[in-house]
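queue> pop job 88
queue> type: inverse folding (structure -> sequence)
queue> payload:
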């Protein structure tokens, strides 16, 4: 990936992800979630922020995880896009049925109370690609960069192994995740806070 711009890499990795067959998508997502659920950060967490996957775009499937967490009385918080402000709001999710598609095809609660982010124990982060330094690349809105910059709580990104590269180009505002989980390994940030 050396010499390529973030934009080119993003485009390539998105195209590659779209190719994952349904059966691999389901099976590999299950493996990733199983690994996630073995992590100490997950086991210790009661208040968990989690993206609601766009399964058509082959983001690692978090739907079964979210349903399970709600059933097990974890507090689940999901992002809500504020299109005007180009920022994220965050809302407690009581039931998966409260989600509706927004104009970009992301499932979000239509309304809800802003959540106190300082209380979060863990944030599960969506990715388009990742690297060996636990850096991530997303859709390019900078939403998660801005969301994560002031938070101290652990962050775990979920990514299919095929979308990992050795080194992503980084900019000053890019903050590495604490961990990236793929179906075959766990990448731990060396910069862990
Ligand atoms: N599942 C999930 N939820 C998430 C994110 C995510 O990456 N995945 N986000 C992570 O930030 C936030 C939403 N960010 C998003 C950013 C861009 C697009 C998107 O579809 N963009 C179009 C172009 C849009 C336009 O400019 O009109 C595209 O990429 O095709 C979707 C969500 C919050 N929720
Ligand atoms: N901390 C920040 N403060 C201000 N602007 C930022 C910050 N982080 C990112 N941005 C802006 O957001 C743009 C996109 O960032 P980047 O390419 O890292 O997005 P991404 O991580 O792929 O997307 P996302 O976080 O939405 O999944 C940057 O070009 C920058 O202008």
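queue> result:
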């Amino acid at each position: 990936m050396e010499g390529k711009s973030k934009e080119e890499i993003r485009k390539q990795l998105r195209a590659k992800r779209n190719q994952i067959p349904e059966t691999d998508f389901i099976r590999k997502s299950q493996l990733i979630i199983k690994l996630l659920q073995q992590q100490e950060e997950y086991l210790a967490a009661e208040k968990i922020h989690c993206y609601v996957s766009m399964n058509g775009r082959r983001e690692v499937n978090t739907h079964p995880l979210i349903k399970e967490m709600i059933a097990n009385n974890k507090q689940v918080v999901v992002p809500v896009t504020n299109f005007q402000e180009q920022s994220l709001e965050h809302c407690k999710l009581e039931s998966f049925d409260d989600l509706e598609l927004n104009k970009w095809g992301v499932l979000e609660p239509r309304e809800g109370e802003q959540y106190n982010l300082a209380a979060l124990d863990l944030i599960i982060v969506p990715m388009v690609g990742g690297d060996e330094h636990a850096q991530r690349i997303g859709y390019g809105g900078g939403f998660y960069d801005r969301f994560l910059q002031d938070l101290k709580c652990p962050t775990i990104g979920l990514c299919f192994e095929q979308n990992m590269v050795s080194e992503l180009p980084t900019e000053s505002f890019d903050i590495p995740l604490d961990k990236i989980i793929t179906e075959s390994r766990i990448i731990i940030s060396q910069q862990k806070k």
